[in-house]
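In full, the data.
>
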Amino acid sequence: MEIESFTAQDLFGWVTGREPFLLLDVRNDVEFGRFKVEGPYPFEMVNVPYMEFVEHEEESVARVPRGKTTRIVCAKEGSAKFVGEILVNNGFDNVVYMLKGIKAWGNLLAPVRVATDNGYELYQFRRPGKASCSYGLVYGKEMMVFDPAKNIAAYQAFADDRGCAITHTFETHRQADYISGSPMLLKSTGAAIMAPEPDFKEARFHYTPVRDGDVYSFTGGGPEVKAIHTPGHTPGSTSYLVDDKFLIAGDTVFIYSIGRPDLGGMAEEWSRMLFNTMTEKILTMDSAISVLPGHYMDWQEANKLLTFVAPLGEVIDKNAEIYNIKNEKEFYAFIKANIRQQPEEYAKIREINAGLVEVDEEKQDILDLGKNECAASAMGH
Protein backbone atom coordinates (compact mmCIF):
# COMPACT_ATOMS: atom_id res chain seq x y z
CA MET A 1 0.00 0.00 0.00
CA GLU A 2 1.32 3.44 -0.96
CA ILE A 3 1.63 5.59 2.15
CA GLU A 4 0.74 9.26 2.04
CA SER A 5 3.01 12.24 2.56
CA PHE A 6 2.82 15.61 4.28
CA THR A 7 4.63 18.93 4.00
CA ALA A 8 6.59 21.02 6.46
CA GLN A 9 3.70 23.50 6.40
CA ASP A 10 1.36 20.70 7.46
CA LEU A 11 3.70 19.87 10.33
CA PHE A 12 3.76 23.48 11.48
CA GLY A 13 -0.03 23.48 11.55
CA TRP A 14 -0.06 20.36 13.68
CA VAL A 15 2.57 21.49 16.22
CA THR A 16 0.89 24.90 16.63
CA GLY A 17 -2.64 23.50 16.60
CA ARG A 18 -2.26 21.16 19.59
CA GLU A 19 -3.19 18.16 17.46
CA PRO A 20 -2.13 14.88 19.09
CA PHE A 21 0.33 12.81 17.05
CA LEU A 22 3.60 10.91 17.26
CA LEU A 23 6.58 12.33 15.39
CA LEU A 24 9.03 9.57 14.52
CA ASP A 25 12.44 10.99 13.59
CA VAL A 26 14.57 8.36 11.85
CA ARG A 27 17.78 10.37 11.48
CA ASN A 28 20.89 9.13 13.26
CA ASP A 29 21.61 10.04 16.88
CA VAL A 30 24.09 12.80 16.00
CA GLU A 31 21.77 14.59 13.56
CA PHE A 32 18.81 14.26 15.89
CA GLY A 33 20.83 15.57 18.83
CA ARG A 34 21.97 18.60 16.86
CA PHE A 35 18.58 19.71 15.61
CA LYS A 36 15.01 18.52 16.08
CA VAL A 37 11.48 19.73 15.45
CA GLU A 38 10.16 22.01 18.18
CA GLY A 39 6.83 23.73 18.76
CA PRO A 40 4.98 25.91 21.26
CA TYR A 41 3.12 22.98 22.81
CA PRO A 42 4.27 19.51 23.90
CA PHE A 43 3.95 16.63 21.46
CA GLU A 44 5.26 13.07 21.48
CA MET A 45 8.51 12.43 19.62
CA VAL A 46 10.61 9.29 19.25
CA ASN A 47 14.01 8.88 17.60
CA VAL A 48 14.70 5.46 16.09
CA PRO A 49 17.41 5.70 13.39
CA TYR A 50 16.69 4.38 9.91
CA MET A 51 19.65 1.97 10.01
CA GLU A 52 18.18 0.36 13.12
CA PHE A 53 15.09 -0.50 11.08
CA VAL A 54 17.31 -1.92 8.32
CA GLU A 55 19.43 -4.05 10.63
CA HIS A 56 17.03 -4.81 13.48
CA GLU A 57 13.52 -4.43 12.11
CA GLU A 58 11.56 -6.28 14.79
CA GLU A 59 13.27 -4.52 17.71
CA SER A 60 12.96 -1.11 16.03
CA VAL A 61 9.27 -1.53 15.27
CA ALA A 62 8.71 -2.47 18.92
CA ARG A 63 10.15 0.91 19.97
CA VAL A 64 7.41 2.81 18.10
CA PRO A 65 4.20 3.28 20.14
CA ARG A 66 1.12 1.86 18.46
CA GLY A 67 -2.37 3.28 18.18
CA LYS A 68 -1.23 6.80 17.30
CA THR A 69 -1.17 8.96 14.20
CA THR A 70 2.47 8.50 13.19
CA ARG A 71 4.30 11.15 11.19
CA ILE A 72 7.81 10.32 10.06
CA VAL A 73 10.70 12.65 9.24
CA CYS A 74 14.22 11.90 8.01
CA ALA A 75 17.14 13.82 6.52
CA LYS A 76 15.89 13.94 2.92
CA GLU A 77 12.66 11.93 2.41
CA GLY A 78 13.42 8.42 1.23
CA SER A 79 14.31 6.92 4.61
CA ALA A 80 11.08 8.18 6.17
CA LYS A 81 9.02 6.62 3.38
CA PHE A 82 10.94 3.34 3.73
CA VAL A 83 10.34 3.20 7.49
CA GLY A 84 6.68 4.11 6.96
CA GLU A 85 6.26 1.12 4.67
CA ILE A 86 7.85 -1.14 7.30
CA LEU A 87 5.42 0.13 9.93
CA VAL A 88 2.42 -0.40 7.65
CA ASN A 89 3.62 -3.92 6.90
CA ASN A 90 3.74 -4.48 10.65
CA GLY A 91 0.13 -3.48 11.18
CA PHE A 92 0.41 0.27 11.84
CA ASP A 93 -2.38 2.59 10.68
CA ASN A 94 -2.31 6.36 10.02
CA VAL A 95 1.35 6.49 8.94
CA VAL A 96 2.61 9.38 6.79
CA TYR A 97 6.08 10.72 5.89
CA MET A 98 7.38 14.27 5.33
CA LEU A 99 8.32 15.43 1.84
CA LYS A 100 11.87 16.75 1.35
CA GLY A 101 12.97 15.73 4.84
CA ILE A 102 14.16 17.85 7.74
CA LYS A 103 15.58 20.54 5.44
CA ALA A 104 12.00 21.43 4.49
CA TRP A 105 11.31 22.13 8.16
CA GLY A 106 14.58 24.05 8.42
CA ASN A 107 13.59 26.33 5.52
CA LEU A 108 9.92 26.78 6.43
CA LEU A 109 8.69 30.36 6.82
CA ALA A 110 5.38 30.95 8.61
CA PRO A 111 4.13 34.55 8.22
CA VAL A 112 1.87 36.20 10.76
CA ARG A 113 0.60 39.78 10.72
CA VAL A 114 2.05 41.93 13.49
CA ALA A 115 0.26 45.17 12.68
CA THR A 116 -2.02 46.93 10.25
CA ASP A 117 -2.19 50.71 10.49
CA ASN A 118 -2.58 53.73 8.18
CA GLY A 119 -2.68 51.60 5.06
CA TYR A 120 0.36 49.43 5.77
CA GLU A 121 0.77 45.88 7.03
CA LEU A 122 3.75 44.51 8.94
CA TYR A 123 4.39 40.76 8.94
CA GLN A 124 6.71 38.53 10.93
CA PHE A 125 8.05 35.52 9.04
CA ARG A 126 8.74 32.96 11.74
CA ARG A 127 11.31 30.32 10.86
CA PRO A 128 10.80 27.60 13.48
CA GLY A 129 13.68 25.45 12.25
CA LYS A 130 16.16 28.26 12.90
CA ALA A 131 14.28 30.01 15.72
CA SER A 132 14.64 33.21 13.70
CA CYS A 133 12.37 35.95 12.36
CA SER A 134 12.42 38.06 9.24
CA TYR A 135 9.92 40.77 8.36
CA GLY A 136 7.84 42.10 5.51
CA LEU A 137 6.39 45.61 5.33
CA VAL A 138 3.65 46.09 2.73
CA TYR A 139 2.24 49.38 1.50
CA GLY A 140 0.33 49.77 -1.74
CA LYS A 141 1.97 47.73 -4.45
CA GLU A 142 5.37 47.56 -2.74
CA MET A 143 6.97 45.34 -0.13
CA MET A 144 10.15 45.81 1.88
CA VAL A 145 11.77 42.72 3.38
CA PHE A 146 14.06 42.73 6.43
CA ASP A 147 16.71 40.03 7.04
CA PRO A 148 15.32 37.55 4.50
CA ALA A 149 16.28 33.88 4.72
CA LYS A 150 17.38 31.97 1.63
CA ASN A 151 13.87 30.59 0.99
CA ILE A 152 13.15 33.52 -1.29
CA ALA A 153 10.32 31.67 -3.05
CA ALA A 154 8.25 32.09 0.12
CA TYR A 155 8.67 35.89 0.12
CA GLN A 156 7.98 36.09 -3.60
CA ALA A 157 4.81 33.99 -3.31
CA PHE A 158 3.69 36.12 -0.36
CA ALA A 159 4.21 39.32 -2.36
CA ASP A 160 2.47 37.86 -5.41
CA ASP A 161 -0.57 36.90 -3.32
CA ARG A 162 -0.86 40.54 -2.27
CA GLY A 163 -0.29 41.94 -5.73
CA CYS A 164 2.90 43.77 -4.80
CA ALA A 165 6.57 43.73 -5.74
CA ILE A 166 9.56 43.34 -3.43
CA THR A 167 11.46 46.58 -3.93
CA HIS A 168 14.05 46.58 -1.12
CA THR A 169 15.72 44.16 1.25
CA PHE A 170 17.23 45.53 4.46
CA GLU A 171 19.99 43.75 6.36
CA THR A 172 20.38 44.49 10.06
CA HIS A 173 23.91 43.03 9.96
CA ARG A 174 25.97 40.39 8.21
CA GLN A 175 24.42 37.20 9.52
CA ALA A 176 26.56 34.35 10.85
CA ASP A 177 23.89 31.77 11.64
CA TYR A 178 21.92 31.61 8.39
CA ILE A 179 22.41 32.35 4.71
CA SER A 180 20.83 35.61 3.63
CA GLY A 181 18.31 35.73 0.82
CA SER A 182 19.07 39.34 -0.12
CA PRO A 183 21.58 38.58 -2.92
CA MET A 184 19.14 35.99 -4.31
CA LEU A 185 16.27 38.48 -4.24
CA LEU A 186 18.50 41.02 -5.99
CA LYS A 187 19.09 38.53 -8.80
CA SER A 188 15.50 37.32 -9.09
CA THR A 189 13.53 40.53 -8.53
CA GLY A 190 16.03 43.39 -8.76
CA ALA A 191 15.22 44.41 -5.17
CA ALA A 192 17.79 46.87 -3.88
CA ILE A 193 19.92 45.64 -0.97
CA MET A 194 20.27 48.12 1.88
CA ALA A 195 23.01 47.15 4.33
CA PRO A 196 25.36 48.69 6.95
CA GLU A 197 28.77 49.38 5.41
CA PRO A 198 30.92 48.32 8.42
CA ASP A 199 29.65 44.76 7.95
CA PHE A 200 29.45 44.70 4.16
CA LYS A 201 32.42 46.78 2.99
CA GLU A 202 34.05 43.70 1.42
CA ALA A 203 30.82 42.41 -0.16
CA ARG A 204 31.05 41.33 -3.78
CA PHE A 205 27.50 42.28 -4.68
CA HIS A 206 25.95 45.69 -5.12
CA TYR A 207 24.31 47.24 -2.08
CA THR A 208 23.40 50.71 -0.85
CA PRO A 209 25.10 51.65 2.45
CA VAL A 210 22.70 52.31 5.33
CA ARG A 211 23.78 54.97 7.81
CA ASP A 212 22.50 56.04 11.20
CA GLY A 213 19.48 58.30 10.83
CA ASP A 214 18.71 57.43 7.21
CA VAL A 215 14.97 57.39 6.53
CA TYR A 216 13.26 55.27 3.88
CA SER A 217 9.71 55.35 2.55
CA PHE A 218 7.54 53.88 -0.17
CA THR A 219 6.90 55.47 -3.55
CA GLY A 220 3.43 56.62 -2.56
CA GLY A 221 4.19 57.63 1.00
CA GLY A 222 3.27 55.18 3.74
CA PRO A 223 5.22 54.50 6.95
CA GLU A 224 8.75 55.79 7.36
CA VAL A 225 11.56 53.37 8.15
CA LYS A 226 14.39 54.93 10.16
CA ALA A 227 17.82 53.31 10.42
CA ILE A 228 19.37 53.36 13.90
CA HIS A 229 22.99 52.25 14.20
CA THR A 230 23.08 49.81 17.14
CA PRO A 231 26.58 48.26 17.03
CA GLY A 232 27.81 45.51 19.31
CA HIS A 233 26.60 42.21 17.99
CA THR A 234 28.59 43.33 14.95
CA PRO A 235 30.19 46.72 14.24
CA GLY A 236 27.54 47.50 11.64
CA SER A 237 24.47 46.22 13.45
CA THR A 238 21.54 48.43 12.57
CA SER A 239 17.94 48.40 13.78
CA TYR A 240 15.02 49.74 11.75
CA LEU A 241 12.24 51.76 13.41
CA VAL A 242 8.98 51.43 11.46
CA ASP A 243 6.43 54.24 11.86
CA ASP A 244 8.05 55.20 15.19
CA LYS A 245 6.28 52.14 16.66
CA PHE A 246 8.06 48.93 15.72
CA LEU A 247 11.77 48.24 16.17
CA ILE A 248 13.11 45.55 13.84
CA ALA A 249 16.08 44.89 16.08
CA GLY A 250 18.05 42.17 14.29
CA ASP A 251 20.39 40.52 16.79
CA THR A 252 20.74 43.55 19.07
CA VAL A 253 17.63 43.28 21.26
CA PHE A 254 15.98 39.95 22.01
CA ILE A 255 12.90 39.34 24.13
CA TYR A 256 15.21 37.33 26.39
CA SER A 257 18.91 38.24 26.54
CA ILE A 258 20.82 40.50 24.17
CA GLY A 259 22.89 39.83 21.04
CA ARG A 260 26.24 38.21 21.79
CA PRO A 261 29.25 40.37 20.81
CA ASP A 262 31.85 37.61 20.52
CA LEU A 263 31.06 35.98 17.16
CA GLY A 264 33.66 38.06 15.34
CA GLY A 265 36.49 37.07 17.68
CA MET A 266 36.71 40.58 19.18
CA ALA A 267 34.58 40.11 22.27
CA GLU A 268 36.08 42.87 24.41
CA GLU A 269 35.97 45.58 21.73
CA TRP A 270 32.50 44.67 20.52
CA SER A 271 31.26 44.40 24.13
CA ARG A 272 32.16 48.07 24.60
CA MET A 273 30.13 48.91 21.48
CA LEU A 274 27.18 46.86 22.73
CA PHE A 275 27.29 48.40 26.20
CA ASN A 276 27.23 51.89 24.68
CA THR A 277 24.36 50.90 22.38
CA MET A 278 22.46 49.53 25.35
CA THR A 279 22.95 52.55 27.60
CA GLU A 280 22.91 55.38 25.07
CA LYS A 281 20.31 54.13 22.60
CA ILE A 282 18.17 51.22 23.75
CA LEU A 283 17.56 52.53 27.27
CA THR A 284 16.70 56.00 25.95
CA MET A 285 14.02 54.82 23.51
CA ASP A 286 10.30 55.06 24.17
CA SER A 287 9.42 52.06 26.34
CA ALA A 288 6.16 51.61 24.38
CA ILE A 289 7.98 50.76 21.14
CA SER A 290 7.35 47.16 20.10
CA VAL A 291 10.51 45.08 19.74
CA LEU A 292 10.61 42.66 16.81
CA PRO A 293 13.66 40.42 17.34
CA GLY A 294 15.74 38.60 14.78
CA HIS A 295 15.77 35.44 16.89
CA TYR A 296 14.18 33.72 19.83
CA MET A 297 15.48 30.94 22.07
CA ASP A 298 12.27 28.98 22.39
CA TRP A 299 8.52 29.28 21.97
CA GLN A 300 7.98 30.49 25.55
CA GLU A 301 8.89 33.94 24.24
CA ALA A 302 5.87 34.04 21.92
CA ASN A 303 2.61 35.74 22.89
CA LYS A 304 -0.83 34.11 22.75
CA LEU A 305 -0.94 34.69 18.99
CA LEU A 306 2.39 32.85 18.67
CA THR A 307 4.06 36.07 17.58
CA PHE A 308 7.45 37.19 18.87
CA VAL A 309 6.91 40.81 19.86
CA ALA A 310 7.01 42.71 23.14
CA PRO A 311 7.09 46.34 24.36
CA LEU A 312 10.63 47.60 24.90
CA GLY A 313 9.87 48.40 28.54
CA GLU A 314 8.81 44.81 29.13
CA VAL A 315 11.95 43.53 27.40
CA ILE A 316 14.13 45.66 29.65
CA ASP A 317 12.30 44.41 32.73
CA LYS A 318 12.64 40.78 31.66
CA ASN A 319 16.38 41.30 31.19
CA ALA A 320 17.05 43.45 34.25
CA GLU A 321 20.19 41.42 34.99
CA ILE A 322 21.67 42.80 31.76
CA TYR A 323 20.16 46.28 31.53
CA ASN A 324 21.04 47.14 35.14
CA ILE A 325 24.76 46.69 34.48
CA LYS A 326 26.36 50.08 35.13
CA ASN A 327 29.82 49.99 33.53
CA GLU A 328 31.75 48.46 30.62
CA LYS A 329 33.97 46.31 32.83
CA GLU A 330 31.04 44.66 34.55
CA PHE A 331 29.29 44.17 31.20
CA TYR A 332 32.33 42.47 29.68
CA ALA A 333 32.57 40.22 32.73
CA PHE A 334 28.95 39.19 32.09
CA ILE A 335 29.76 38.48 28.44
CA LYS A 336 32.85 36.40 29.33
CA ALA A 337 30.85 34.38 31.85
CA ASN A 338 28.30 33.53 29.16
CA ILE A 339 30.50 32.95 26.11
CA ARG A 340 29.69 29.68 24.37
CA GLN A 341 31.52 28.11 21.47
CA GLN A 342 30.03 29.27 18.21
CA PRO A 343 29.16 26.63 15.61
CA GLU A 344 31.98 25.88 13.17
CA GLU A 345 29.84 26.74 10.15
CA TYR A 346 29.36 30.38 11.22
CA ALA A 347 32.66 31.51 9.68
CA LYS A 348 31.71 30.03 6.31
CA ILE A 349 28.21 31.52 6.45
CA ARG A 350 29.67 35.00 7.06
CA GLU A 351 31.78 34.60 3.92
CA ILE A 352 28.79 33.47 1.88
CA ASN A 353 26.74 36.43 3.12
CA ALA A 354 29.34 38.83 1.75
CA GLY A 355 29.49 37.05 -1.60
CA LEU A 356 33.08 36.00 -0.92
CA VAL A 357 32.29 32.29 -1.30
CA GLU A 358 29.65 30.45 -3.31
CA VAL A 359 28.33 27.00 -2.45
CA ASP A 360 25.67 24.84 -4.07
CA GLU A 361 22.15 24.46 -2.72
CA GLU A 362 22.84 21.16 -0.96
CA LYS A 363 25.81 22.65 0.90
CA GLN A 364 23.72 25.70 1.79
CA ASP A 365 21.09 23.46 3.37
CA ILE A 366 23.73 21.65 5.43
CA LEU A 367 25.31 24.90 6.65
CA ASP A 368 21.96 26.54 7.32
CA LEU A 369 20.37 23.75 9.34
CA GLY A 370 19.88 24.07 13.09
CA LYS A 371 18.92 26.66 15.70
CA ASN A 372 20.78 29.92 16.12
CA GLU A 373 23.39 30.64 18.80
CA CYS A 374 23.20 34.43 18.72
CA ALA A 375 22.04 35.41 22.22
CA ALA A 376 24.58 36.55 24.80
CA SER A 377 23.12 34.25 27.44
CA ALA A 378 20.89 31.19 27.48
CA MET A 379 18.64 32.73 30.09
CA GLY A 380 16.02 30.77 31.94
CA HIS A 381 12.44 31.91 31.62
Observations:
- The first strand starts at residue 4 and ends at 6.
- The chain has two domains: 4-104, 109-368.
